[in-house]
Amino acid sequence: MASKSETIDYIVGQIAGAGIVYARKMFGEFGVYCDEKMIALVCDDQLFIKPTAGGKAYLQEYEEGLPYPGAKPWILIPEDQWDDVLWLTELARITAAELPPPKPKKPKKSKSVR
Questions:
Q1: Domain that holds residue 83
Q2: Phi/psi of residue 66, nearest 5 degrees
């Protein structure tokens, strides 16, 4: 079951204060990015945060879940915690700060016209 666009819009709106936040459709679900780093997945209308040492320390207690079959465990954020803007924004900020910057994209080869 694919996530609803309303769910994505809500989550992105809640953590917008963490930086440049947006979602990108991926395999029928969504990746959530903060400052060009993928920090979360939204699968089946559930929010999964990428596990980092800082994020785990901030949460102290958390549940892990699999966003899709074959995935490694991610931190599952219960829906009743999505309303806490400050808490969720801080978690997003901490997570993004610990992730490496994205690798630069290779320039596309231009096709020469002959």
A1: 5-97
A2: -100, 115
**C-beta separation of 76 from 46 below 8 A:** yes
Helix (H) or strand (E) holding 53: helix 53-59
**Total domain count for the chain?**
1
Of the chain, the percentage scoring pLDDT greater than 90 comes to 79
27: amino acid identity, one letter = F
Is the predicted pLDDT of residue 54 greater than 70, yes or no? yes
Per-residue pLDDT at 114 exceeds 70: no
pLDDT score at 23? 96
Structure tokens at 44: 């089946």
CATH code assigned at 53: 3.30.1460.30
